[in-house]
Write a structure and sequence with these properties.
281 residues; 7 helices; globular
């Protein structure tokens, strides 16, 4: 299981790690978007959610997966962004998140959860969460209840050396000083889910820490840095799953954000842990 999962994740990364800013590397951006579509298609119809930005049409890609039984209206939404900043191959940010999204889709399609699941690949996260903001507002207008939104944001960088993990002011006294865990950051209403998902992740021998934040994360701006933010702002339960980005990874938004810098065993453990953890929700 673990070897097969690691192989699948590696294959996804090899396809997606390339410059893919939608304006300055549009060929790579198009390639990655169509790769995601192709990988999701075996599990159901992939819906294209279009939105406009600076006179151009952009796309979120959505796969709906049915629940174990038809009794639940609330969805679990799992999202990851597929764009990258200019000049960066975007291995950790965010090919890792999308690779895990693709494998969660496969796992959930084969073994459904208690809730219906939407797997969403968001565009334009790097331009201020434009794709996720568009989609969150659309769901709000449709009065779609969301059991939980999970944003997969940089999942593959690990450093077990002492003092390799930085923190926003005040947090270093409560968390490890080595960057070898995955972090779950949620708004207050997600505390039961933070506990359950973290237990699932730890069950697969991957270290996990969690942080609940009040007031939409306004007091700790570093918690407001991915596609969960539009969902927080609209009052939904949402959790960011992250390796903490530049608080740990020196290659963040650099040309050096490449496959070679990732810890693929760590990434595989995170993916396995999320598969287990989501079944506790």
């Amino acid at each position: 299981m673990q070897f097969h999962l690691k192989t699948q994740l590696t294959q996804h990364l090899q396809q997606m790690i390339r410059e893919r800013d939608p304006y300055l590397a549009s060929e790579g951006h198009f390639y990655v978007r169509e790769y995601i579509r192709q990988q999701l298609q075996p599990w159901g119809s992939v819906i294209t959610d279009e939105f406009q930005q600076t006179g151009r049409t952009h796309q979120n890609l959505i796969l709906n997966l049915p629940a174990l039984s038809k009794s639940k209206d609330s969805i679990i939404l799992i999202g990851a962004h597929y764009d990258a900043v200019p000049g960066c191959p975007g291995a950790d940010d965010n090919a890792t998140g999308v690779a895990v999204l693709l494998e969660l889709a496969r796992s959930i399609a084969e073994h459904p959860l208690k809730y219906p699941v939407q797997c969403v690949a968001f565009d334009l996260e790097e331009y201020g969460f434009v794709g996720s903001q568009h989609y969150a507002q659309r769901l709000k207008q449709q009065n779609q209840p969301i059991r939980l939104m999970l944003s997969l944001e940089m999942l593959g960088y690990c450093n077990s050396n002492p003092n390799s993990q930085l923190y926003p002011p005040g947090l270093k006294y409560f968390y490890p000083n080595s960057g070898d865990y995955i972090a779950l950051i949620g708004n207050l209403k997600t505390i039961p889910d933070l506990i359950n998902i973290s237990r699932g992740i730890r069950q697969t021998k991957t270290s996990c820490e969690w942080l609940p934040v009040p007031n939409r994360g306004m007091m700790v701006p570093d918690t407001r840095r991915s596609d969960h933010v539009p969902f927080w702002d609209l009052g939904y339960s949402a959790i960011m799953v992250t390796d903490t980005a530049n608080l740990r990874n020196p290659h963040y938004h650099e040309q050096t954000d490449t496959l070679e810098t990732l810890d693929l065993d760590f990434l595989t453990g995170v993916c396995q842990g999320l598969i287990v953890g989501l079944r506790r929700v």
